Amino acid sequence: MRQTVLITGGTGMVGQDLLPKICSQQMVEKVIVLTRRNAALPSHRKIEAVRADVGQPDLGLQHGLKQSVVKAATTIIHGAAETSFSSGLSAARVMNVGGTENIMRFAADCPRLKAFCHLSTVYVCGKRTGTIREEDLEHNSGFVNAYEQSKYEAEQLVASEAHRLPTTIVRLSTILGRSQDGAVTKSGAIHYALRFFFHSLAPLVPGKKESPVDLIALDYAADSIALAALHQFTPGSTWHVCGDSDAFSL
């Protein structure tokens, strides 16, 4: 079956590399990108930009447009998120929990939906240590910031709907840049941290020299999402996309 993929967060750091990857799949006929503003998107005949807001009921779409998108979508990749580490919990929840709830309600109305892929973070583990498996979620170890907690709560929401929606969760590690040239379209957490080091605003980092710092390549992240959402989609599954034994040391 030819796929129509609906993507939120397509203008973010991951989204801008993910779009060409999804468009290159032969099984994909159309890619609908929900965006809140007139943002630069890759030029491709399969891409259709739709002004929307996942923070609003029905994604802020007028009835006619909503029905058109609902009838077309076969796969949804939900990547829109508030990623700032400095946001308060209430603000982070508006997008990361409320937005996820809105897009899942939208997904429930899609009669042709075969897959709902929720993009999350390995840092839903919060302050946990040791081995953390894909199926592990619930814990009471606390969180470093509101971003981690709100993404954890969003995952709980996705898991609670897995009995009636075909869902998978992809937990991404920290993204460094493309494997070929290190380039990124937007800066992420690791780039801000390196800038602080360079300007001596963070002159030291707590930890041992051999402590792992898990970083992944941007194109590896995009490849993994395409695999999980399209080629090897398994309802109820969770994927860890991280460096593991390949992680850099501090």
Series of H and E elements:
EHEEHEHEHEEHEEHEE
Distance between the termini: 46 Å
Main beta sheet strand tally, sense and closure: 7 strands, parallel
Number of strands: 11
What kind of oligomer do you see?
Answer: single chain
Q: In percent, how helical is the residue content? A: 25-40%
Please state the CA-atom Rg, rounded to the nearest Å.
18 Å
Structural class: alpha/beta
Rounded mean pLDDT score: 93
Describe what this molecule looks like in 3D.
It is a single chain. α3 (89-108) packs parallel to α4. The chain starts with a strand and ends with a strand. β4 (75-78), α3 and β5 (115-121) form a beta-alpha-beta unit. The protein has 250 residues and is of the alpha/beta class. It has a 7-stranded parallel sheet, with helices on both faces. Strands 7-9 form a two-stranded parallel sheet. The model has no long low-confidence stretch (mean pLDDT 93). It contains 6 helices and 11 strands.
